[in-house]
Amino acid sequence: MARAAAVVGTGQTRYANRRDDVNIPELAREAASRAIEDAGIDPRDIEAVVIGSGPEVFEGVNRPDLWVGSALGQAGRPVTRIQTGGTSGAGATIAAFYHVASGLHDVVLAVSYEKLSDGIPSYSFSTLSDPFWDRGFSSGAAPLVGLQSCQYLARHAPKVREDHGAMVAVKNRKNAMRNPYAQLQMEITVDDVMNSSPVASPIKALDCCPLSDGAAALVIAEERRAKKMASRPAWFAGLGACSESPYAPNIDMAYPESCVRAAQLAYQMAWIYDPVRELDVAEIFEAFSFQELIWTEALGLCNPGEGGRMVESGVTAMEGEFPINPSGGVLSANPIGASGMIRQIEAAMQVMGKAGAHQLPGVRKSLAHSWGGVVQFSTVTIFAGEL
Amino acid sequence: MGLELINNLMDVFTAEDPMAFAHPDGDPWADFREGMRIEWKMDFTYKHVLGKYSKFFIELTNHKFLATECPGCGKVWAIPRPLCADCLTITKWKELPGTGTLESFSISQFVPSFMKVEVPYVLALVKMDGADTLFTHQLRNYGDSTDVVKMGMPVKVAYATEPVDHPMLLMHFEPA
Ligand SMILES: [Zn+2]
After folding, report:
1. DSSP secondary structure string, B105-154?
2. Rounded to whole angstroms, what are the CA distances from A192 to A167, A204, A205, A290, B109?
3. The total number of structural domains that make up chain B
4. What domain count does chain A have?
């Protein structure tokens, strides 16, 4: 039986298009020191470290776990690295939870980072595709998600429309204005999004996440230590991490099974029967605006085809009945390997009551989601304020 | 002599405190704001074996579009899969007509500079006739305007007539 464990401290860096003031380990350390400080502990209290970051090809650094591990003041401790694309950061947290839940360690640090400005994203993204089937004509993430979005819109037309994506972009960039770490803080209109330059139909420039440098970290502790370290820890209540076919054409991208299954597993573990009633807020990995609608449905927060109504009616707004991405989401910053962990940190902070200017009132349970690969990795994490 | 001794130096600069709003008493890293950036070029060549997929590409040169059929559950896979992902049975090659319908598409107005393709670039997700799965590739020769590209549009596999840089480029889709 798994031991109870909770997030007791979190740390983030300012997300930016370029962080010229730091190298990679310095960036990771910035987040890690903030998390350790937030937990009110000494770096020497950490027993093991899990690092999450995107593919090595992004930064051109191999074995970054060894380089980063010692820079965090954790030389000599066990270090594990997780790399599952966009879910790397969330995967690192889940692996750190396993460390604690298993009883092997009492206090574990999970750190994730990405420094995309060190590399050449347009080139490195093309190498992420399958070397046989996709790489010959691959042109990065936007056209793939364009296919996904077009398939989704066609399936649910006229209930879901192109401007529903724009409404997500407007909402999340506005939410980001209350998040001091966000990279894009913008007051824009649906028309601004609809008239922004076409990228990969139906995706337009303002439907896209930025490229970011940034790091995130959190400290996880077992029950007795967690209660001492935090007045209101964010307890792990449910987890789901699923994968499916390596080939995008074999996946129903408009309703991905890996996401549906990960949510079911997490709800089962957390004894949640009616997620939209029992949860108070969700942080969803929407690298492109239409994905927030697709994931909202796949996570069972509404029925298939209802994603558009969720945003249009204001349900998912900051002041709505079920806010989604009060932090501004991935549309406001995307240090890829860290983004999944940032969703978890934001969801945990809402439960801990530490989300600052974008704190929602009375959050008891929150959900964090991430996706990676060619839409075939999904993670769902549920935090609760009470054990 | 000085910095010009460093052949791969890109620039030297003074970095700003990205969290100045959090440091009212001054920048804690004030002593470490001199920055420099270097350039490191890497040029590797990888050698990929195409394994049990190889026959698909060999037959493309004969203008044949192959899928695999599972003798266990009957599912037809295109992209061909040597092992049925649903029931884990070893499959058999099966030729398909190479026609299908557009299940989804995305039109890109620009592509990364290393891609030797025309823009607008149309990426297509196609339901292949005779297969139970979808297949992705570029849609070309759609005429003067991408307006003709529509959901459900019939398409067909077209085969390369000029040498290509990747075996997957031996084929693409065109309107049927
Ligand atoms: Zn089968």
Report:
1. EEEES---TT----SSEEEEEEEETT-SSEEEEEE----S-GGG--TT-E
2. 10, 10, 10, 16, 18
3. 2
4. 1
Q: How many whole angstroms separate alpha carbon A215 and alpha carbon A341? A: 9
Residue A309: count of CB within 10 angstroms of its CB: 15
**Would you say residue B113 has pLDDT above 80?**
no
CB-CB under 8 Å, A19 with B107: no
Cβ–Cβ below 8 Å for B123 and A249 = no
Rounded CA-CA distance B115/A125 in Å is: 13
**For the whole model, what pTM was predicted?**
0.96
Identify the bridge partners of residue B21 per DSSP, sorted by sequence position: none
pLDDT value at residue B42: 87
B136 part of a folded domain: yes
Give the model's pLDDT for residue A246.
79
Mean pLDDT in residue range B30-40: 95
CB atoms B169 and A137 under 8 Å: yes
* Residue A58 counted as domain residue: yes
User: Which residue range is the domain that position B30 belongs to?
Assistant: 3-38
Q: Contact, A216 vs A7, CB < 8 A?
A: no
Left, alpha or beta for B33 (phi > 0: left; psi -120 to 50: alpha)? alpha
| CA–CA separation, B19 and A58 (whole Å) | 25
Kindly list the averaged pLDDT for each block of 10 residues, start to end, along chain A of length 387: 94 96 95 97 96 92 84 89 94 98 98 95 83 80 93 97 98 98 97 97 97 97 97 97 87 95 98 98 98 98 98 98 98 97 98 98 98 92 96
Q: Which residues surround ligand 1, an ion (CB under 5 A)?
A: B 70, 72-73, 84, 86-87, 89
Interface of B with A in 28-47 (CB under 8 A): 29, 32-33, 35, 37, 40, 42, 46
Query: Each residue of A265-299: b (16+ CB within 10 Å) or e?
Result: bbbebbebeebbebbbbbbbbbbbbbbbbbbbbbb
Task: Report CA(B82)–ligand 1 centroid distance (Å).
Answer: 10
Asked if B135's CB is within 8 angstroms of A249's CB, the reply is: yes
Q: Both B27 and B91 in a single domain?
A: no
What ipTM score was computed for the predicted complex, to two decimals? 0.91
**CB neighbourhood size of A181 (10 A):** 23
Are B55 and B112 members of one domain?
Answer: yes
* Interface contact flag, B29 A21, Cβ < 8 Å: yes
Task: Judge whether A195 lies within some domain.
Answer: no
- From chain B, the residues in CB contact with A147 under 8 A are 104-106, 123, 125, 136
- Could you tell me the residue range of the domain that residue A41 belongs to? 5-121+210-384
Proportion of chain B above pLDDT 70, given as a percent: 100
- At residue A374, the pLDDT reads 83
Beta strand pairing call for A281-283 and A365-372:
parallel
Whole-angstrom CA distances from A244 to A143, A183, A253, A311, A368 are: 20, 32, 11, 28, 20
Q: What span, in angstroms and rounded, lies between the C-alpha atoms of B137 and B102?
A: 11
For residue A20, the domain's CATH number is: 3.40.47.10
d(C-alpha B164, C-alpha A89), whole Å = 38
Lowest average pLDDT, out of A322-326, B61-65, B113-117, B132-136, goes to B113-117
